[in-house]
Amino acid sequence: MKPLHLISFILLLSLLLVACQRAPPSPTITPLPEPTNPPPPTQIPPTKPIVTLTPTPLGGVSLPVGEKADLVLQNGFIYTADSARNVAEAVAVKGDTNIYVGTDADVQTYIGPNTQVIDLQGRMVLPAFVDSHAHATSGVSDIYEVFLYGIDSVEKYQQTIRDFLAENPDLKALQGAGWINNVFGAKGPTTAMLDEIVPDIPVVLYSEDYHSVWVNSKTLQLAGITRDTPDPEGGVIERDASGNPSGTLRETAMDLVAEVIPPYTVEQYLEGLEYFQGFAHSLGITTVYIPSLPGGLGEALTALHEFDASGKMSIRFPTAAGINPEDPLSKVDEIKALIEREKGGYFEVIGAKIFMDGVLEGSTAYLEQPYLHIPNSRGELLWDPQKYNEVCAALDRAGIQIHVHSIGDAATRITLDGFAYARQQNGPRDSRNIITHLQLVNPADIDRMADLGVIAVPQPYRFVIDTYYTQAVEFVGKERADRQYPMKTFFDKGITVASASDYPVSWPPNPFYAIEIGVTRTVPQSLGDIYVGADFQTPLNPQERVTVEQMIASFTINGATATFLENQIGSIEVGKKADLIVLSQNILQIPPNEIHRTTILLTFFEGKEVYRSEEYAQ
C-alpha cells in the first residue's frame, strides 16, 4: 500500500473508532405525534419567519461518568426567554432540572439508553407560563355553579338559569357567576328577573368581575336587607325609585349576603383545585399567583395546605392573604406567621392582598375626575389613606410583598403613596410590590411606579373594544375610555410587567388569547362567543401595543420575578426547573392575529409530563 493511502486509511480508521466511542447506545426517539385532525384552514404554518433567530449553544453541566439525561427535547425552536432571548435547538433534563440547553449536535452526549428523547420536528418550546393573578380556588365554581359568561341578554341569562335548575333539581341554594353589568344598565339586574324563575331558594350570582352580586328576594329576606339597611362603608346597595333594594349589591355590600349560602367544604375546594390544576396544565400554566383566599383563612386555605401535602400537586401556588380596612395592625403579624407556617411547598404564602377601590363598570373604581353618569361621585375609596400608609409600612417592615387591586387613577395614586411611605419609614428593599388591573393610570404615576420598583400586573384579555368599552364611554367619556389599560408605556419605563388572567374573570384563562390581544389590542376573530359586543377591527389604545417577545416575557420570566422565583423558573436555562411547554405553532413566525389559535401539545412540570393534548396520539 502506498504511504499516502496508508496514512489516509489510518486516519479514517481513527475517526471511526472515535465516533464509535462517542456514540451513545441507541435510545428510542419519540417523534412528536402529528395531529389526528388537520389544522384549521386559517392556521398559517411557520414556513415564512417574521423573525429569524439563530440557535445559540448555551452549554450544560458535566454529569458523573455513566449518568445521562432523563429527558431530551431536540430538533426544536426553543425560545429560552433568558436575558439575551437566546434560541436553542435542544434541551436536556435530569430529574427536575435543565442540565443542557443548546444544539442538537452537542445534546447527543447527554443521551443514554434510558433517556426519553422527543423529536420536536421543528416545533416551538417555551418556558411554562406563569399567571400572576388568578383565583385558582374558584375552580370549585366551575364545577358547582351556573355559568353565565358570554351572554348578552336578560332572556338568555334567565334561560341559562332555568336549564341549570332543571339539571340540578335538588339544590338548596343557587350560586353562579359571569353576568355583565352593561346588559342591565347602571343600576344592575333586579330581584324580579330572578324571582320569576327561582322564588323559593336563595340565589347569589356574581358579576363577571366579582365586584357585584345579583340576588333574588329570598336572599334579601334571609339576609335581612330592607329599605332601611344603610349602604355599608365602601359598598352600594342598588335601589329602586322607592328606595327598596333592587337586587344588585356592590363591593362591601356583597358581604351582607355572605352567610346566606353555606361556604364550600374543604373536600369541594380540593376537587376544584385538582380540576383547576389539570385545566392550567392544558393551557401551559405551571405557576399561578393566587391573589386572595375566599373566606379569609378558612376552608380554601385548609384545602390548599392539604392539596400540597397530598403529593398530588404539580403546580405552584404562591399566594397572598387578604388584609381589610377594618383589620387591626396585628393582622400583619398573623400574615407573617402564616408565611412562616406554609414555607417550603408548592403552596406558599408570600404576600398581602389589599383592595383599594372597586371596578369601573360598577361605578366604584376611584377616579381623579367624577363619573359622567353620577356627577357627584368619583367612586369608592375603600381605605383611609393614613391607615393604608401605616399598614404598608408594617407589611414592608415585616418583609411582606404588597399586592394591591387598583382600577381607577386616583386609587393608583394613593396606592403608590403607601409604597412611598413604607420606603420612607423603612428604607429601600427588594419589595417587588404589585399593582394589578391598572385600568386608568395618570402618566405621572407610571414614572412613580418605575421609581418605586413596582411590578405591573395587567390583564391583557381586557385590552379590547367590546361592551365594557361602550359602558366606559358612557361612564367616563371617550377620552378616558380611549386611554384605558397602558402596557407599552410600562415596558418603555423599565417596569417589570407580569401578565395575568384574573381567572375566573377572564374565562378561559388562555395565555395565547392574551398574548395576541397584547400585540393587536383587538378581539381575536374567533372569540366572539366570549366577548359581548366585540369590535374585531378597531384596536383599543393602539399606541400601547407591545411585541410578541414582550408578551412572552410577561407570562414567563417576568411572572417568575413577580413571585421571587426568577432563579428557579421563567426561562429555559441550565440549573433551572424543567417547566417546559411544546406549542402547536411558532408564535414568533406567524401573523399575530393567528396566535390565539395556538394550542399546547405537551406540558412538563419539573421534568415530568403533566399534560399531553388529546388531539395527538399517545
Main attributes of the structure:
single chain, 618 residues, alpha/beta, 6-stranded mixed β-sheet, 25 strands, disordered N terminus
Brief rundown of the structure:
The chain is of the alpha/beta class. Helices cover 30% and strands 18% of the residues.
Describe what this molecule looks like in 3D.
This protein has 618 residues and is α/β, with parallel strands linked by helices. Helix content is 30%, strand content 18%. It has 19 helices and 25 strands. The strands form five sheets. The protein has a six-stranded mixed sheet with strand order 1-8-3-6-7-2. Strands 5-4-9-23-24-25 form a six-stranded mixed sheet, covered by helices on one side. The chain has a six-stranded mixed sheet with strand order 11-12-13-14-16-15. α8 crosses α9. The longest helix has 20 residues, at 3-22. The radius of gyration is 27 Å and the shape is globular. Residues 1-28 and 34-55 have low confidence and may be disordered.
Task: Give the secondary structure arrangement, pairings included.
Layout: H1 3-22, E1 29-31, E2 59-60, E3 71-74, E4 77-79, E5 87-88, E6 90-94, E7 97-102, H2 104-107, E8 116-119, E9 124-127, E10 129-131, H3 139-144, E11 146-147, H4 154-167, E12 174-179, H5 181-184, H6 191-195, E13 203-207, E14 212-215, H7 217-223, E15 235-239, E16 245-251, H8 266-282, E17 285-288, H9 299-309, E18 317-322, H10 331-341, E19 347-355, H11 385-397, E20 401-406, H12 409-426, E21 434-437, H13 443-451, E22 455-457, H14 467-476, H15 478-482, H16 488-492, H17 511-520, H18 548-555, H19 557-562, E23 580-583, E24 600-605, E25 608-612
Parallel strand pairs: 1-8, 3-8, 4-9, 10-17, 11-12, 12-13, 18-19, 19-20, 20-21, 21-22
Antiparallel strand pairs: 2-7, 3-6, 4-5, 6-7, 9-23, 13-14, 14-16, 15-16, 23-24, 24-25
